[in-house]
Design a protein that fits this description.
This protein is an alpha+beta fold. The protein has one domain: 2,3-Dihydroxybiphenyl 1,2-Dioxygenase, domain 1. Helices cover 15% and strands 31% of the residues.
């Protein structure tokens, strides 16, 4: 089944349809392959509650305090391993007045982190003591814990025998034996599989790795790095999801270099997708498009990374602004409450 173009704006005011003058562009001869999940961006409510949970309960490092490039009076918070390595990065737009989202078709409906297999009992106890309801289950033969963050985002911790290596954060309240090791996977809900599978396998270089009932697991080719799986659950009766607090905004996949990202842009446009121009996000460059089922996909570069404007040892400790917003820093800071960024309160 062929890939069909997606019509309409993606985000913000920078969306650009492919001009007719580019329609005759020479076809690229090699298909780029994604090496894994780069980051996932979701929507939260209170930024302080968000920091408390992800840094002090889950033990992720807040690697960057910045603002939403399209809404500079809103935080954009980045969490990850000690360095914010691609494959470990979870980011949030804290929109406190936004209604709750609704999981549904055309959306990423849950995210999962990898932890050592033997760490699951530790996490079940820790989360229970924090007042979080936990459900134990199995998927594709691996045990995992399901729960929700304080604002409703569904999260899983999957116990794996070979967790990916990451840059460990020495100040984490979680010891190295039990700590989160970056993403394991993300799960999308769709009403049909065919066009999405066509994109994932024929345009993005993934392979259908396993199936379990109505869940299809696609594998990327960047092992042993974090974030190697995208699961697609098919429910033909599912209603469309609604963006809001506790929902995923988009998922980003890795491009190793700027050149590789440009190859992605050409390749996806040739496949019929309306892909944005390259956008400089300071810590990586991005292009965006909607996959056939409606999920917003991003292709983000691995570099330059989060040390481009802060030293490694002090990542996330100060509000960093894109250069275009520095002239209104005082105005922005006046409207953003300072964050509590320490990580010791929930240590165990």
């Amino acid at each position: 089944m062929g890939i069909h173009p997606i019509k309409g704006e993606i985000i913000g005011g920078d969306y650009r349809l492919l001009p007719e003058s580019e329609a005759g562009m020479e076809m690229i001869t090699t298909r780029p392959n994604t090496t894994g999940i780069h980051h996932i961006t979701a929507i939260s409510s209170s930024p302080d509650e968000n920091v408390d949970f992800y840094q002090q309960v889950l033990g992720l490092r807040l690697v960057k305090q910045t603002v939403n490039f399209d809404d500079p009076h809103t935080y954009h918070l980045y969490y990850g391993d000690a360095a914010g390595t691609p494959g470990t990065i979870l980011t949030f737009f804290p929109w406190e007045r936004m209604p709750s989202g609704r999981p549904g078709a055309g959306a990423i409906v849950s995210i999962a982190f990898a932890v050592p297999h033997e760490a699951l009992s530790y996490w079940a106890k820790r989360l229970k003591e924090t007042g979080i309801a936990v459900h134990r289950a199995f998927r594709f033969g691996e045990p995992f814990l399901e729960f929700r963050d304080p604002h409703g985002l569904p999260i899983g911790l999957i116990g794996t025998e070979n967790p990916p290596a990451i840059s460990q954060w020495d100040e984490s309240p979680i010891d190295r034996l039990h700590g989160i090791r970056g993403f394991h996977s993300a799960t999308a809900l769709q009403t049909r599989l065919e066009d999405t599978q066509d994109l994932l396998t024929n345009s993005m270089g993934m392979v259908l790795h396993a199936t379990e009932k109505n869940c299809y697991r696609f594998k990327m080719n960047g092992a042993p790095s974090a974030g190697q799986y995208l699961d697609v659950v098919v429910d033909r009766t599912a209603s469309k999801g609604r963006l809001g607090t506790g929902a995923v905004h988009h998922i980003a996949f890795r491009a190793r270099t700027d050149r590789e990202q440009l190859a992605w842009q050409v390749h996806l446009r040739q496949a019929g997708f309306n892909v944005t121009d390259v956008r400089d996000r300071n810590y990586f460059k991005s292009i965006y498009f909607h996959e056939p089922g409606g999920v917003l996909f991003e292709i983000a570069t691995d570099s330059p990374g989060f040390t481009v404007d802060e030293p490694l040892e002090s990542l996330g400790s100060s509000l960093m602004l894109p250069v275009q917003y520095e002239p209104i820093r005082d105005e922005i800071e006046a409207g953003l409450a300072p964050l509590q960024t320490h990580a010791a309160e929930h240590a165990s």
